[in-house]
Amino acid sequence: MRIRLPHEVSASIVAFATVFLLMKPLSMPTWAIFITWAGTFLLGGPNKANAVKLITATTAGAGFGVVAVLLNRETGTIFGHGEFGRTVALALVVFVVNGTLLVTGRIPAFSLIPGMFFGFASLFGTYFGGFGFASGNLAAAFISSAAMSALGPLCAFLGLWLTFAPSEPEPTPRPEAVLPAPTEAPAEA
To answer: For residue 120, what are the contacts with CB-CB under 8 A and spacing of at least 6?
Structure first.
């Protein structure tokens, strides 16, 4: 039997390894990994079905984030160049994109709405935070945030795998012989 590490240690080993992705030239948004790692466990744990659900949702959410940025670029000054006018334009973009995202969640393949918001927020954090392999580039922000979000379910799996669970199942104890239940003596009258 191999040594069994506590999950707290194995998950921390995986987290340790992800930090190096922050270094230049990649500057990847590693927080997206942690968001979807946690999301994997909220879904019940790492397995293929949960990974597909989460990766589909976060990628779609990042796509909605791209649409929001592009719409804001085109309509951001429609109500003027002042702060209030730009804020009203942004609010309308958020209203439209958020509503569309929520309606899209009615489609079974995209029904993991919280996952879409994970991807949406990761795209914004990546793009507006200057992260990704090409800071300030919206396409690079999409690729970077979607890739990091996709690594979360894999890291959840790796964290459990690194616990070094026994490779062979533990032998089950043999059932003890079952003795007949004692009979009660008849009650005296």
So the answer is: 61, 62, 64, 65, 68, 101
- The count of other CB atoms within 10 Å of the CB of residue 1 is 9
Q: Where are the alpha helices (DSSP H) in the chain?
A: 7-18, 31-42, 48-75, 83-104, 113-129, 138-161
| Cis omega (within 30 of 0) for bond into 25 | yes
- Contact partners, residue 119, CB within 8 Å, separation at least 6: 57, 58, 59, 60, 61, 62, 63, 64, 65, 145, 146, 149
Q: CA 57 to CA 21: how far, in whole Å? A: 23
Q: Provide Rg for the chain, Cα atoms.
A: 25
- Distance from C-alpha of 131 to C-alpha of 48, rounded to nearest angstrom: 29
Q: How would you write the pLDDT of the chain (189 residues) with one tens digit per residue? A: 566 777 788 888 888 888 888 888 888 999 899 999 999 999 999 999 999 999 999 999 999 999 999 999 999 999 999 999 999 999 999 999 999 999 999 999 999 999 999 999 999 999 999 999 999 999 999 999 999 999 999 989 988 887 765 555 556 666 665 656 666 666 665
